[in-house]
Amino acid sequence: MPDADTYQHLISLLDASHVDYRLIDHAPEGATEDVSALRGHPVSQAAKCIVLRVKVDRRTTRHVLAVVPGDRRVDLDAVRALFEARYVGFSDAETAERLARSVPGTVLPFSFDPELELVADPDVVAQPRLYFNAARLDRSLCLTGTDYARLAEPRVARIASPAPA
């Protein structure tokens, strides 16, 4: 599914759910820190979305969309413990794009693919305002963490750790 379809799927979901959201047009940017500055909010209010490969055992691989605050990083050890996995690492770009249905820098904190499990850090769903690129580099979306949690239905677990200084 191309990015335009992913964007439209998101907007249709939000409109059908009568969620209060705001679209923000800006210069094309996918880096969390830079796009947060363009949108005019603290980096901590951004949703950073990372597709992970989780090897539960020798035969079982799962894919997880980890959503953490923009000023933090995903804690791979926490994800490994959460899934009782042998190994957790970053997914290859091709698999991430296929499952997230968008390119890096535009990945939504929503999963529209049954093969992509969604896990969000509690600090994401607690945000009064949550910002993320809307499957496009030039448009972002803002909604409450509560509305995000209600619509996306992520598994909520502590998966973020401080970003390196």
Describe this structure in words.
The protein has 165 residues and is of the alpha+beta class. The protein has one domain: YbaK protein (Alpha-Beta Complex), CATH 3.90.960. It contains six helices and ten strands, in the order H-E-H-E-E-E-H-E-H-E-H-E-E-H-E-E. The chain has a five-stranded mixed beta sheet with strand order 5-2-3-6-9. The N and C termini lie far apart (37 Å).
Rg computed from alpha carbons, rounded to a whole number of angstroms: 15 Å
Mean pLDDT: 94
- CATH class reads Alpha Beta
Q: What spatial order of strands do you see in the largest sheet?
A: 5-2-3-6-9
Strand pairing plus helix content: what structural class?
Answer: alpha+beta
Quick one: biggest sheet? Answer: 5 strands, mixed
Helices and strands, in order, run as HEHEEEHEHEHEEHEE
CATH homologous superfamily assignment: YbaK/aminoacyl-tRNA synthetase-associated domain
How many beta-strand elements? 10
Distance between the ends: 37 Å
Q: How big a fraction of the residues is strand? A: 25-35%
The CATH architecture name reads Alpha-Beta Complex
Q: What's the CATH topology label? A: YbaK protein
Helix share bin: 25-40%
SS field, number of helical segments: 6
Number of domains: 1
Globally, the shape reads globular
Pfam families: tRNA_edit
Protein name: YbaK/aminoacyl-tRNA synthetase-associated domain-containing protein
Domain YbaK/aminoacyl-tRNA synthetase-associated: 30-151
GO molecular function: aminoacyl-tRNA deacylase activity
